[in-house]
Amino acid sequence: MVTVMKLPLFRAAAMTLLCALILTGGGCSRSPREDGLPWLEDMNVLLIVVDTMGAGHVGCLEPGLDTTPNIDRLAADGALFTHAYSTAPWTQPSISALMTGLTPSHTGVLHLYDHLGADNVTLAERLSRRGFATAGVVSHFLIAARLGFDQGFDSYDESAVVNHHRGISSPKVYQAAAADLQRLKDDRFFMFVHFFDPHAHYLHHPEFDRTSWYHGPVRDWDHKITELRKRLDELDPDGTRYLRDLYREEIAFTDHYIGMLLAKLDELGLRDNTLVILTADHGEEFMEHHWIGHTRNLYDTLVHVPLVVSLPGRIDPAVIDDPVSLLDIAPTLMDLSRDPVEDFSWDGISLIPRLAGRRPGRTGRLLYHEVAFPARKDDAGTPVAGRGTFLAAVSRDQWKLIHDVEHDTWSLFDRVTDPGEHRDLLAEQPAVASPLRRDLLEWEKDKVPGWGVGGAQKRTLDPELEKRLKSLGYIR
């Protein structure tokens, strides 16, 4: 078991100061919020992130699917954001943005094995300073403690990180998280729980069978993602559907353990006082654009994710169609705090007005996405890792503009009439594209040095890390 335990340096002092302020009336009040929502300091926070779970594979967002009954029940009892988006199409930059409220460019986590620097202030650090016990349970080595993702956590359990050739991690994630809930049930806590199983390789789960209909050749292929990508031209529609359904079995399997974790909250009497936020870091492609997996594109198959916020009796059930970002989670939690003493600077916005029922609707908000994923090269300088990708995108309402920075090409999509983003309307809609292009170019100016073409610094990987990256299809 790999668990990083730390001393809660700020908690005792923070709680003492908070209690003193409450008792003396010195800038802190027990009076209710005007919006009817609870104060952050009066509840627990459980943040659940499912790796590689796109919105199109979740029942509450895709009518007719039965993959996620437990997530669907959570959504029915809380606020379901139907148009939530990640900032990047793979784990490291997406989680860095979620935890800080800053874009990957601003966190500095852009490329494989970038370290989340100590100059970033994470949600765990902010909540620890407000007296919360903090615990993380993760199942992906790309958000390991050694890469800085444990900042602010009193404990950071990595025991569920397994060999993903044939690894199953959800039971281990549940067991570690349930143990933390038991240990912290009498504290005010913030828990981050990360499930990994929907990530490739896609494994069969007989109890959640969705693939018995298929008897074709793909069943016997090597399902390692790098091997599948070598055979993309051999995939027929049924073979692609089989791989997608195998992935959906993984989602259903993970949903089962999410249900067990929520039941553990009930068993401990914590559910009514625990704000549960459930989301995903990115989605997955199944040949929608002749690719399997993620990391290489900014289409909605990869950046459209579920987002549910639930607190029974305090947040009214609602379906909210406003476009929102994972960047909004950190500022939303801090907007609930009695003690907003820090000078915050966010790339996201607070979702409190929407959670409180004041919903401005689709008001033309700009959302940005980015990916800087270089193709690995051999000794002769020839790319060998599939497609290198340096992309930025901006979306407003139904429109999305994608900039291929490396080749300086542009694509415009209407996601209402063309939800699959297959028809480039750049030439047909110059009046739409022009202001979006100006916005995106201005946004790109604010990148950290080295974001764009050739910007990925050369990194020396130890053999074990290199082996893991290859097994997951990030490099060859």
Structural overview:
The chain has helices spanning 11-24, 69-76, 91-100, 104-107, 123-128, 170-184, 225-230, 237-267, 300-303, 329-335, 352-355, 430-444, 463-471; strands at 3-5, 44-50, 79-85, 133-137, 155-157, 189-195, 274-280, 285-286, 292-293, 304-310, 318-325, 366-373, 389-396, 399-404, 409-414. It is of the alpha/beta class and 476 residues long. The chain folds into two domains: 3-31 and 38-355, Alkaline Phosphatase, subunit A (3-Layer(aba) Sandwich), CATH 3.40.720.10; 366-471, 2-Layer Sandwich (Arylsulfatase, C-terminal domain). Strands 1-5-4-6-2-7-10-3-11 form a nine-stranded mixed sheet. The longest helix has 31 residues, at 237-267. It starts with a strand and ends in a 5-residue tail after the last helix.
